[in-house]
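C2H2-type domain-containing protein, pasting as requested.
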Amino acid sequence: MKIKCISSVLFGCVFICHACGDMFAARTRIIGHYYLFEEDASSDFSIRYKLSSGDFIG
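Structure tokens follow.
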């Protein structure tokens, strides 16, 4: 029973962290709705557009 509970909690944590997506990415506003994202590795960059819902695409 303990293993099932622990497994469920760990699975929930992983799911929540994955759902947050860019939680650990540094973002800098470029202009308007465009943002520069620096991923976990400092050499990975991307430009993303912020939607009215607050999500980013790009």
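Note for the archive: The two ends are 43 Å apart (CA to CA).
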